[in-house]
Amino acid sequence: MLKQHSFDQINPPARLLMGPGPINADPRVLRAMSSQLIGQYDPAMTDYMNQTMALYRQVFVTDNPWTMLVDGTSRAGIEAVLVSIIRPGDKVLVPIFGRFGHLLCEIARRCRAQVHTIEVPWGEVFDPQRIDDAIQSVQPRLLACVQGDTSTTMLQPLAEIGEICHRHDVLFYCDATASIAGNPLHTDAWHLDAVSAGLQKCLGGPSGSSPITLSEQFSAQVRARKHVEQGIRNAQHQDGDEEMVYSNYFDLGMIMDYWGPERLNHHTEATSMLFGARECARIIAQEGIDQCVARHQIHGEAMVKGLQAMGLALFGDLAHKMSNVTGVFIPQGIDGEQVRQLLLNDFGIEIGTSFGPLHGKIWRIGVMGYNARKDTVLTTLAALEAVLNHLGFVTTQGSAMQAAWDFYE
Ligand SMILES: *Cc1c(COP(=O)(O)O)cnc(C)c1O
């Protein structure tokens, strides 16, 4: 028998999450999520679904009617977009500038795409001309690209790439999970055909819901494919049909039938997550999407000023850095993991480690969503500086926090 205390009520330690995500959820989102459940087709519920669609059009800066939630973490949105559009043998071009580019390739390959890649070293982004050249030589049906890759902190400029895809009649999908609401993203103006996101970065919620938006062109091409449910309904479906979407749960054609006026039963919408996702978007709509992006830029820059004042070197091409994540070189002679542990145990602050080629070389510090605030920036800088001095990396104590504070003036 397990001891009674093993089953204490959930009561996580107080943490300030200043890594590359997840971050602390806005208390308003947590309150919305604790609301009582209602039936799947209760008019109150379908109203909430419609409102959620309208609110996310503001977040994505789009008029796309097909703007909705995929239930699951950000990866669910990515997978739904890719599995719903890619037919076996389709050519997909993926420009890779970090870990999440590799994820897009991995999923596209599982969809039986012919995947072509181009790469830049970590810490850089693509020149649009290089993407234009690759499109002309590969002639893909789809370009799949990350906007902000938290693994490298880089932000790929998309406006020109959208123009290029539009000109060559290539569908353009973007994973904006880490960048949306913290950096400009203009779905319609930039000709993005599909964009997916998640709540746990700048949207200020928990992971578990993936907002997506689809252009007319993209949704029409998804709709033109065969969907299992139609097959079941019409008893006409044949196995091995190339036009079949190879997923039931992530079949956007069926998810559209569920979110659209038909209200055809698919899954049971994750009601509590929808309440949370709706509140994330409502907070941003109240603040204004442009103001929300500007807030991330201000607090991100204050963090940069503070880190530089401490004498720390920053990673990557700073002209193309995401506003909401900063890569910081771990100084020579300092144990990066020991710093993270002291920050967590003595200050309750979490900062991020890093993956792959950057492992052991940089920390990643996030300033995003509910945590993109003056107090969180100043507290994190003061704590990091204290820990570094404690371990022998000598700075003028207080210089980092003062630099950020002065920047705010
Ligand atoms: C953080 C992040 C994700 C997260 O995916 P989850 O399924 O929510 O863990 C996806 N894409 C990018 C670019 C990210 O930075």
From TrEMBL:
Q: Which family does it belong to?
A: Belongs to the class-V pyridoxal-phosphate-dependent aminotransferase family.
- Every Aminotransferase class V domain range: 45-353
- Drop me one GO molecular function for this one: transaminase activity
Q: Which SUPFAM superfamilies match?
A: PLP-dependent transferases
**Could you tell me the superkingdom of the organism this chain comes from?**
Bacteria
As cofactor, the record names: pyridoxal 5'-phosphate
**Which keywords has UniProt assigned to this entry?**
Aminotransferase, Pyridoxal phosphate, Transferase
**Name of this chain's protein:** Alanine--glyoxylate aminotransferase family protein
